[in-house]
Every structure is written in structure tokens, then in C-alpha cells.
Amino acid sequence: MEANTYLHCFFLLFSSLLLIVLVRSWFPATDLFLDCSEYSSWCTTSKNRIQSKSNNVLLQNKNLGKPIDHLTETPKHPLDPLTLQEINKVNTILSLHPPFSANYPSIHTLSLHEPEKSTVLKWKKGHALPPRQAMVIAFSNSHSHVLVVDLEDARVLSHKIDPTSGYPILLAEDTKLAINITQQNEEFKRIIVSRGVRLSDIACITLATGWYGPSEEGNRVAKVQCFSREGTTNYYMRPIEGLTVTVDLEKKEIVKIANTGNDIPIPKAANTDYQYSRQKKNKQPLHTKPINPISMEQPLGPSFTIDGHTVTWANWEFHLKPDARAGVIISQAKVRDPDTGKLRSVMYKGFPSELFVPYMDPSEGWYFKTYMDAGEYGMGLTALSLVPLNDCPHNAQYMDGIFAAADGKPFVRSNMACIFERYAGEVGWRHSESADFGRPEV
């Protein structure tokens, strides 16, 4: 029972952190190919965000943590993510690997190949790290390639090709390819115009891959659906229903255009725009008093410390790292026993693997939608940088993500995760026992 209580408390802390990443990770990749304009929903310019005049000052706040020089960063823990230098080294090793030396594959996953659990549990701070290895999922010649690369010996330890294992996650390049092929198709253009939508107003996305029927079984295809972004940044509220374009990503051509929604009107744009600049700031609803700002002060600074990717807070200790696929991974969560003073293991590894949403609608435009966001898009790859005072409170500390692009080269997703303390002493959490009335005297 006591272990369950510890685990419950830790997941409350864990879920608060994940909420930050999840809220900031909802479909940002779909707008990578739109200009950062007035109606670009994931544009991070100041006009689309609630900005504070103190943001620039806050960025210099000592409590935000010392900036990390990723060019010289070295791992400190067996589970630390690959550094920028390590990803570059993997890229070099793969380029010299005979199957890829003439034709470099597209990289869909490049991350730490974690040591065995027993090895990690035996490791102590100050000891030498286990051999650093990378796990790579690449796509080449219509096949998925799964490789393990040893960074110390600079060689490929294993290379497996399994044509029956499915396909890797969709890359931004896959999305861009499918959308470009769709928008250049003349039949598609005629349909859009016939629906009363200007071609300049459409926004298209590739939906998560699913089972598309026996005629498309075994083919690497993506389905594209579009929206009207006229008058709103929230174009998901204005779908062009019944129009689905199936694109073969290998052949780079349209397989099918389904157009069954001519009788379904496009919703109006009124009251759908959530941008702060679009809100009626000077008009308060009747009988409603504006709410004053709320701030939690920590005059002595935060109570947690971060050493690399190891977080220590109160009697807790855990390892945290941004991950391209899962978003955030928390490992080796431990709590210090108040009686013995020893750290007790609560959870070895935890992360939100998939969000599975089956719509259960057999129609052409919906039957294939089984969103598995983390696996299909990469929850970390699609994350946006967190903005101080907008996404995270004062005294939050930030952690960057180092990921690999499709060409194998590393890039930095700055401020991908933030760590902060939140007071959880709300009255709803308070508990007391009723008096023991009626107990007979002895």
C-alpha cells in the first residue's frame, strides 16, 4: 500500500510535466510549410503569443539555469540522450557503412540504444559510463533498416531489414511531399474551387497512417485532408469534409481522390480564432470582473537541482530527458526512505507511448483515422520551444532536446521541457478522519 502511495505521488509530478509537453506538441509539424503569417497557427512570433515585457529580463534570470554549450556537452549518466557530437559521429559511421555509402537513407529515428537494465542499476555516479551506442531506424529502397551503432568502436554492430515490420514514423519531409503532390494536382484544384474555397486559403495535413484496405496493403501511403484557413488561425474548425487524397510516398504520385462531401458545408470562421490579438480585450462580459494576475513567489529560489539530466527534489530523484518519439522520458524514479535514508526504486522507466483514438466511422474520410500521435509524428520532433511566463512559471528551469533530422544531422530543440514546482495543497487534497464517537470506555 505504501509503494502505491509513492507511485501515485510521483505520477502526479510526472503528469504535470507531461502536460506542458503535450499541450505544446499538438500538430505543430503540419504548419512547417506555411509562412509565419497572420493565420499561421503555430507561428511563434510575438503577435501570436501573450508576451510579457519582462520576458527578456527573465531569460537572464539565474534561476533558469546556466546555458549548456551543446558543442562541448558530454553525457554524465548511462541514460543521457545522445549529444550533438555523438549524433554527428553516428552520421559519419552510417555514411561509411557499405549499404549506405552510395545512397544515404532517410533517418526516421536516431536515439540512444540504452544499456541493459541490470547494467544501469549497477552503475554509480563517478563510475565510467557503459559503452555508448545508438539505435537507428532508417528507410532505404522501400525497406525499413534497424541498426545499432557502437560509438566507441565506430562501427555498426547490427543491421536488420524486415520488410514485414511496417514503416517508420512520418517525417516532415514525408508530409511536405504528400502535401505538395496534392496541391499541384489539377483535379484537386478543381474540387477545391468547386467547394467555394480559394486555393490560397487551403491548409492541408497528412493524417496518421493506418490500415487503408487490401488494395493499399504493403504500400507506403499517406492520406491528405484539407481545411479552409480563411478568417481564422484555427483552421481545424473549418474542414473540407469528404475530400481525401491518397498519396503513394514511394512512387510520389496520387493513388486516389475521394470526393464525397459536396453536400457538407464548410463551417463559418466566426468566433473560432484563439489568437490573443484577436480577442476583444477592451470588452468585458456584463457582470464580470477581470481577474488580476496570479504569481507564486519563491524568494529563495526553487527547491530542486538538476545535474545534467538528473533531477533531485525533496526526497525524490529521477532522470529526465527529452525524446524525439515519446516527448519526455522519466527513468529511475526513486524516493528516499525516511526511516533508513536509502533511495527506494519507484519506477524504472515511464513515458506516454501512444494516444490511440479510433473514430469508428466507416465513411471514406474517417475509417482510417486511428491517431497514434507519438508514434506517427514524434511527440518530441513536433514539440515547440516553451516560452517563459507563457508556458512555464517563474523559477522554471529548461531542458533542450538534441535530435537528428532526416539527413542524420543534429539540431537543437531549445527549451523543449521545463521543470518547476507547483503548490498542490488545494483543499480538495486535504483529508481528515471523523472523530471516533461511541467508543465504549474501558
Automatic annotation (TrEMBL):
Residues 295-435 form the Copper amine oxidase catalytic domain. The keyword Oxidoreductase applies. One of its GO terms (biological process) is amine metabolic process. It comes from Papaver nudicaule (Iceland poppy). Contains 1 topaquinone per subunit. PANTHER family: AMINE OXIDASE [COPPER-CONTAINING] GAMMA 1-RELATED (PTHR10638:SF69), COPPER AMINE OXIDASE (PTHR10638). GO terms for molecular function: copper ion binding; primary methylamine oxidase activity; quinone binding. Pfam families: Cu_amine_oxid (PF01179), Cu_amine_oxidN2 (PF02727), Cu_amine_oxidN3 (PF02728). It is an enzyme of class 1 (oxidoreductase). The lineage of its organism: Eukaryota, Viridiplantae, Streptophyta, Embryophyta, Tracheophyta. Residues 1-25 form the signal peptide. Residues 77-160 form the Copper amine oxidase N2-terminal domain. Keywords: Copper, Metal-binding, Oxidoreductase, Signal, TPQ. Its cofactor is Cu cation. InterPro entries: Cu_amine_oxidase, Cu_amine_oxidase_C, Cu_amine_oxidase_C_sf, Cu_amine_oxidase_N-reg, Cu_amine_oxidase_N2, Cu_amine_oxidase_N3. Gene3D superfamilies: 3.10.450.40, Copper amine oxidase, catalytic domain. Residues 168-267 form the Copper amine oxidase N3-terminal domain. This is Amine oxidase. Topaquinone (TPQ) is generated by copper-dependent autoxidation of a specific tyrosyl residue. SUPFAM superfamilies: Amine oxidase catalytic domain, Amine oxidase N-terminal region. Belongs to the copper/topaquinone oxidase family. Its EC number is 1.4.3.-.
